[in-house]
Description:
It is found in: Secreted, Extracellular space, Apoplast. Belongs to the germin family. This is Germin-like protein. By secondary structure, the protein is of the alpha+beta class. It has five helices and ten strands. The strands form two sheets. A five-stranded antiparallel beta sheet has the order 1-2-9-4-7, with no helix packed on it. The chain has a five-stranded antiparallel beta sheet with strand order 6-5-8-3-10. Helix 4 packs across helix 5. The longest helix is centred in the N-terminal third of the chain and has 20 residues.
Amino acid sequence: MVSLxxxxxxxxxxxxxxxxxxxxxxxxxxxxxxxxxxxxxxMASEPSxxxxxxxxxxxxxxxVNGFACKDPSLVQADDFYFDxxxxxxxxSNPVGSKVTPAFVQELPGLxxxxxxxxRVDYVPGGLNPPHYHPRATELLTLLEGTLEVGFxxxxxxxxxxxxVLHKGDVFVFPKRLVHFQRNIGKTNARAISGLSSQNPGIVxxxxxxxxxxxxxxxxxxxxxxxxxTDVIANLQSKF
Length: 239
């Protein structure tokens, strides 16, 4: 992936030659199949905007897939502006990293545009722990420092793909795959990520498994991780 947008190519299905040559209904059927595939792929991505902009109205009581539009006559430059990525995030936490998002919640002008970004700061040894984005691919550019990055493919292969990034390097994390970044340098590291959704979502694995509300049964987790409930209780106490 070389951009924050997804481009899809659908090859034309092949049908038996005798059907398309001698059966007009088969030609109609093949055209309908192609159209159905096009519409299916189109609906699999965030819809394209049908107007110049749709600034998110965070106070609207209308429940839609996304956010309702703010009255265009009330839209101001501030709706398209966010200065939250200027400063280093607070990395004084157990994992030694901080993600500062510029999602639609922070930048209402992103609504319906299918794009967002985030700044990530890491102290030496800092980790952006294993997580995934349920609604977005991530394209990370390292601005300062040295990062170990990686992601894991889906079952049953669970292949671990990893490398080391240096200043100026770019790495893509495919949509919905578990991934991480770790600062392996001796100085602070800083990265900018572009994401292919206005609201990509973040599911941090450890928090989801051991910090769910209410707790997942210790017996279930002990069996899943092939350990005992004492270990699970200790892990749950940290989240």
